[in-house]
Amino acid sequence: MQITMFAAIDIGSYEVGMKIFELSSKAGMKQIDFIRHRIELGKDAYVLEKIGCDLTDKLCNVLMDFVEIMKSYQVDAYRACATSAVREAKNTIMLLDQIRLRTGLKVEVLSNSEQRFLRYKSIAYRVKNFDKIIQTSTAILDVGGGSTQFSLYDKDTLIATQNIRMGSLRIREKLAGLSKYTTNIQALVEELVNSDISNLYSQYVRDYTIKNIIAVGDYLNYMQSDSGDYITREKFLSSFENVFRLTTDEIAAKLLIPEEEASLLIPSLIIYKRIIEETGAEFIWTPGVKLSDGIAYDYAENNKIIKVMHNFEHDIIASAQNIGKRYMNNKEHTKMLEELSLKIFDSTVKIHGMGERERLLLQIAVILHDCGKYISLSAAAECSYNIIMATEIIGLSHLERQIIANAVKFNTTEFVYYDALAGKIDKASYILLEKLTAILRVSNALDRSHRQKFKNVKVVLKDKELIIMVDTVDNIVLEKGLFGEKAEFFEEVFSIKPVIKQNKKC
Amino acid sequence: MENKEFNNPHYYQNRELSWIGFNKRVLGEARDKNNPLLERLKFLSITASNLDEFVMVRVASLKDMVHAGYDKPDIAGMTPVKQLNEINKSIHELVNLQYSTYNRSLIPLLKKNGIHLVKSHEELTKQQKEYVDLYFKENIYPVLTPMAVDSSRPFPLIRNKSLNIAALLKKKKKHKEELEFATVQVPSLLPRVVKLPDSRGDATVITLEEIIERNVDKLFLNYDVICAHPYRIMRNADLSIDEDEASDLLKEIQKQLKKRQWGEAIRLEVEDIIDDRLLKILVKELAIKDKDIYKINGPLDLTFLMKMYSLEGYEHLKAPKYQPQPVKGMSLEEDIFKQIRSKDILLHHPYQSFDPVVDFIKSASKDPKVLAIKQTLYRVSGNSPIIEALAQAAENGKQVSVLVELKARFDEENNIVWAKMLEKAGCHVIYGLVGLKTHSKITLIVRKEEDGIRRYVHLGTGNYNDATAKLYTDLGLLTCAEAIGEDATAVFNMLSGYSEPLSWNKLALAPLWLREKFIKLIKREEVNALAGKQARIIAKMNSLCDKTIIEELYRASSVGVKIELIVRGICCLKVGIEGVSDNISVRSIVGNFLEHGRIFYFYNGGVGEVYMGSADWMPRNLDRRVEILFPVENESLKKEVTKILQRQLEDNVKAHILQQDGTYLKVNRRGKQKFNSQDFFCREAIRYGKVKEENHMSRVFIPIEKI
Fold first, then answer.
1. B336-506 CATH choice from 3.10.310.10, 2.40.110.10, 3.40.50.300, 3.30.870.10
2. Which of B371, B450, B498 sits opposite A36 (nearest CB)?
3. ipTM of the prediction greater than 0.85, yes or no
4. Which of A245, B54, B212, B635 is the most buried (most CB within 10 A)?
C-alpha cells in the first residue's frame, strides 16, 4: 500500500501544534501523532503588535523539536502554516526568516480566508453527509484565538462568510485589566461580544432560518466529544451551563485541564452560546477538526491521494455571485461575458497554457469586474479593486484575490507593467495577471454596449488569428470599432490577433 | 452515612508504625523454622537494611518536621513528636527481636551446621590468631585512617552508615590519667567477614571489626589502648530538593549527594558492653539523644549476613534456586513483533523470564523497520542489557528518547553515569520532570510496516531491571493495540514537555487523572451495591495509605461492597470497624520473592475489569509521580490475572492477615492443605515451560537410516 507520511504544522495564536498523518487512498487520513505546545504568540501579537525575542526563541525551539520528530517518522512532506498571531504581527517577515534559518522550516502565513477554507475542507471530510446537511441553512462557526469566522451555507452552496475579530485569546487579553473591577467576567464578555453579534444578525442571520450549526474550535472538545454526528441544541447549550457558574481554577479542576486553557474556555464558550442563541439552530455538529487536519486534507486532495468530498469551486463561484449581487451587477452582461471569456479561454489553451484553477480565477474576475460601479461610475476600476481586496472569498488565497483584483482594475485602466508594480506581485503571478487581463479585455470589448448583441459566438484559432465569429443582425459598429484597442493587448501577450467576424445570416 | 465519619483519625493507622509492622513480618520469616537456615539469615539481613533506609528517610523527615515546628497531625491524628516517640519504642523492640533471633536461634543453628561466626577475637585459636594478624598487616592496615581528637584536631566527620571503631588512648610513659579519643573507620571496601582456616573443615568466619579491634594498638604506637568498641551512626539523608529553584536538576542532585553525609546524626548504634567514657564522648560530639542510642548485643549492621548467605558449599541450607521460565505461548525464535501482533502477551515475573522484555528492546534496536524507541527508566541494574540495547539503537540511527528518573531514591549516582552514557550514544535523554518523579514503566516502539505505522507497547508494574526481575514479582503486558499505542505516544509527548492529549483512550495517568479514575471505579462498585447488585473489589499493591482512597473504600464497604486487599507493606486502613470496614479484609504476603505487582480488579456488575499499573494507593504515587494505570482487556489474559489474585487470596503459608487491633497473624489453616502462592506460580511456570520444551523441535539432526 502506498502511504505518504505527512506533517501538518499549525502555528496558532496560543498553541503550536503538529499532526503526523498517514495518507493513503485506501485508508484516507490516519492521524498518528499530535504534538502540541502552548505558546501564546497572540499575547505579544495582539497587544504589542510584534512577536518578541523570547517567544521567537521558544517558537524556534519547539519547531526544531518538530523537525526532529518529523525525521523520526520519516515524513515525506510537510506544510507549516501560521495564522492570525503571526499575520497580525508587524515583524512577520523577520520572524519567518528566523524560523527558516534556525529550523529549516518554510512557514506560510495564511490569510484568514485561506485558513478557514482549509478547515472547511476537513469539515466536509469529517462530517457525515456534509453535502446533505448544507441543503438546509447551515452555519459553520469557527472560534479561534484571534477571531471567529461565521459562514452560511444554503441549498448546497456557500452564501456568505464573515470574519469577526473576537476570539478567545483576544477577548481574554482585552479584559485582562478589568478583572479587578468585577467578579462577573462572563457578563463582561457577553457585553463585548453582543455588539459584534448583532451586526452579524442583521446582515446574515435575519433572512435565513439557520437549522444546523457546525461548531469548530479548540475548546469544544472539553464540552463535547469530537464526532461526525450531531447533538441537539438543548443538549449542547446545557453542557455549558455548569461551567459558567465556576471560576477559572474551578473549571480547570473540574475538567482536569490546565488553568490557562480554562481561561480561554469561557470566552470561546460564550461566543458559541450567543451565536447559537441568536440563530435558533436546532442541531449542532462538533466534528473537532483542527487546522492541521485541513492542511493534511488539502495536501492529500491536491496530490490525488483522497477523493474530493465537496466541490468547493462551486462555493467560490456562488460567493462571488453573491458579492456581485450585493453590488448590483448587470446580470445579463456578466453572464454574456462569462460565456465569451470562457470560450476564448478554452479555445486558446494551447497558447496560454493555463489550467482549471486559472479558468476559475478568470470566471471570478468576470463575475466581479463591474462591482465598483456601485460606488463610483467614474472611478469604477479603482473601486472594484478595493471591494475585491476587502471582501473575503473563502477558497481563494490572498494572492489569487490580488490577481483577480488587479485583472479587474486593468480591464479598463492602463496596464501597469512588472517593474512598475514594484514587487507587489511575483513573476509567475504577474504573467498570470497579464494573461487573464488580456482575455478579460477582449471579452469585455465584445459586449461594450452591455446589450448582448452577439449570439452563438464561436471562437476559432487560425494561424496567427483568433477568429471570433458572431451571429447577429444588430449593428456592431461600436464593438468592432473599439475592439482594436482591446485586441492590441491580447496580441501583445499572446502574439495572436483577435478578429471579429460577423455572420448576419440568422 | 455521613462523610465526616470516615474521616475519623481513629479509623486510620499511622504509616510508619504500619511499616515497622511490615518489617516485623519480614523478621518473622527469619524466625520461621520452616525456612532453610541461610534463607532465614537473608531475611534478617533484609530487615536490617530495610530499617536503615527507614530511619534515614522516614525518621529523618519526621525530625525535620519537628525542627521546623510543624505539628500537623497525620492521618491517624498523631503529631510528629508523638510519632517519633512511638516509632522509637517500636524500633527498639524490633532491634531487640532482631538480635535475639540472631543470638538465640540463628547462631546456634549455624554452629550445628558447621558454620561458626566467631563472636570476639579472644575466642580465636592460636593458628587463627596468626592468620588474622597477618591478614591485618597485609590487607587492612594499609587502608586504615585512624584519627585522634585533641585540642588541635577537632572531632572528625563520621560518614553516614559507616562502621567505625572508637578507642580511648593513654600516652605511654605518662602517669597522668589523661585519656584521648580516637576513631577509625572500618573500611567499607573490604569484605565484612573474613573466612578463617579451620582444622575441622567447617566454615569459620570473623567480622572485620573484630580483627581491627584485636590489632588496634598497632595504629596508636605511642599510646596504650584503654578500650576499643565499634559504633555506627545514621544521619538525616532524605533528599529534599526544592525543584522549583533548581535551574539545573542534575547539578543540584550531584550537590545534594555530597551534602548528604553532613546531615544530623539521628541514630547511634554501639555494642552493649561499650565503655561508658567512650559512649559519653560520642554522645556529646554527635549531639545524639539518649533514646536514639541503640545498645546492641552482637555485631552492628546485620546487613553483612547477606554475605554469609553466599558462602559456598551450603546449598542444602538454602531454598532451591528458581530459574525463571519461558513465557507461556512465546517463542524465542519467532520475531517478537510478529508474536505481539498475533495476540497480547502477559508476563509474570520472576516466575516467567524477563528476557522477552530485554529481547523486545534488543530486537527493536536492530530492526530496520523500527523508527523510534521511547522508554521511561526508574531503577536499572548495573551493566543493564536494556541500556546497552538503547545505546545500540541510537547508534543504529533510531530515534531513542529515554526519561531517566534521577530522583529514584539512593540511585542517583548510578543513574547519572549511565544517563550520560546514553546521551553520548545519541539518545535523547530527559532527566526527569520538575517537581515530579516519573515512576511509570512504559516502553514504546514505533515501527513502520507495510500498512503504516504500528506501535508496540510494553507496560509494567516493575522497573526495567533484569536483576530485580528475578526477585520481585511483577506483571507486564506487551501489546500493539492501537488505542494503547496512541496513548503511549501521548504519554511520551507529555513527558517531553508537550501539552496533554485532547483525550485518553485507555491509560490513566497520575498525577492528573489517576486518582479520579480510581475513585470512579470504587464509586461504581458502591453504586452497584446500593442497587442491591453484587459488588466486589480485589486490589493488590505494595502500600495503601492514601486517605481519600481509604475513605472511599470505607464508604464502599459500609454499603456492602466486598473488598479484599493484598497489601504487602504499609496499610493505613483498619479492618473490622463496625459499619465502616467490616467488609474489608487485608492480607500481606511476605515470601521468598518480594511481592511488587499492582493489580486492581473491579466486579463491575459481572463484567469484571482488570487494571495493572505502577502506582500504589499512596499520596506520593497519586499526586507527585507520573504513574500509569492500564487495563487488561484481552479476555483470556484478564482471566489469568484474576487467577493470580485468586491464588494469592488462597495463600495460607506466606500470607498474614491484618487483625482488628492492627497486628498481623498468619492464616489459621485449620487442617487445610498448605498452599504457598509463590511456590504454586513457580510450579505452574515450570509446567508450562516444560510443555513448550517438549513441543520444541530438536536441534539434533536425525538421520534416516532405513528406507
1. 3.30.870.10
2. B498
3. no
4. B212
